[in-house]
From TrEMBL, chains A, B:
Organism field: [Actinomadura] parvosata subsp. kistnae
Cross-referenced SUPFAM superfamilies: Homeodomain-like, Tetracyclin repressor-like, C-terminal domain
Keyword field: DNA-binding, Transcription, Transcription regulation
Organism superkingdom: Bacteria
Record's protein name: HTH tetR-type domain-containing protein
Amino acid sequence: MGHTPTTARGRATRGRILDAAADLIQRHGVAAVTLDAVERAAGVGRSQLYHYFDDRDDLIRSVVHATVDKVLAAQEPLLLEVGSLAGIERWFDAIVANGTRQDAVGGCAIGSLASQLGGQDELTRQAFVDAFARWEAPLIAGLRWMQESGELRPDVDVTELADLTMAAIQGGLLLAQIRRTPDQLRHALNGARAALKDALTSPP
Amino acid sequence: MGHTPTTARGRATRGRILDAAADLIQRHGVAAVTLDAVERAAGVGRSQLYHYFDDRDDLIRSVVHATVDKVLAAQEPLLLEVGSLAGIERWFDAIVANGTRQDAVGGCAIGSLASQLGGQDELTRQAFVDAFARWEAPLIAGLRWMQESGELRPDVDVTELADLTMAAIQGGLLLAQIRRTPDQLRHALNGARAALKDALTSPP
């Protein structure tokens, strides 16, 4: 890993490089990320690039981590509430509303990166494994809390329930992106909703 | 659109070009698809390429259609059976088994292409809209049949049910690809399974 910036100016430069690389990936795919293109887009030189990143692979993996940081920061207030059916419903509503706001064009930044990069190399795949684990952790914790407090049946596998919810979000975002309508995301989440209601001790 | 080949030799050449482009996209992303690279990989010249495809965009959209043809051809026998809960379960099992066989590395060929290309241009996006519609059509027909024969409740929106199933497959394949385990696909399909059972006139 390259140097971690210690000054505000350094953090800004590193952030500008990451934003430029993320933008290139989103608009033209990962093969478009050449060091030349990143330098041009970020307005930095090769020595600055190499100060913060070991090489192109390190830069791309850093984009993955930065993207997860952004997605999680945006969802954090709602993810704190997923310890109840009502809290999970509010989180779902926010995901659908977000899909609407962006005109459902961008899809999921992490999922889209993962589809492109997941099969590349082991370190990059591992970055996505970590990314999805970080995203899923608050949901697993919330579901476990619901189980411990008796809201979910004791025989329910909360990890499986969290997995299917993550899959519904990812698949729903992909279809919403293609079909340009957030309905797809709402429909997708109905599967997770049905599984969640099945898992309740007393059906609503 | 370029010429449709009328001879076996022509079909073979066009197919070789499509395979080469699909392979480049899968291994290096869509930005790696230059006409030079496709010609080298397929062992054809520029004039042959332009005989079958108008330009690079036409080639890429043709890859989308060819990929859907392959996925649907592989699933066709099972898709004919999705007019019952048992038939849908067999289709789900085959999808999971397929994820296992490929070591869950490739993910969904259509979904992976869609994540990369869905936001590019309107004609390409439309190719994916058509692709998902063709894939979803037998499922919608099967669910409608189940509704007409009284197996599904009359108030169930079969299109929504099909949408959430497609989303579960796509999201599950993405997570299975990242986590390198087909369990993720099995878990993802449990959401669709729960929604499907909720829709039955008499719960199993």
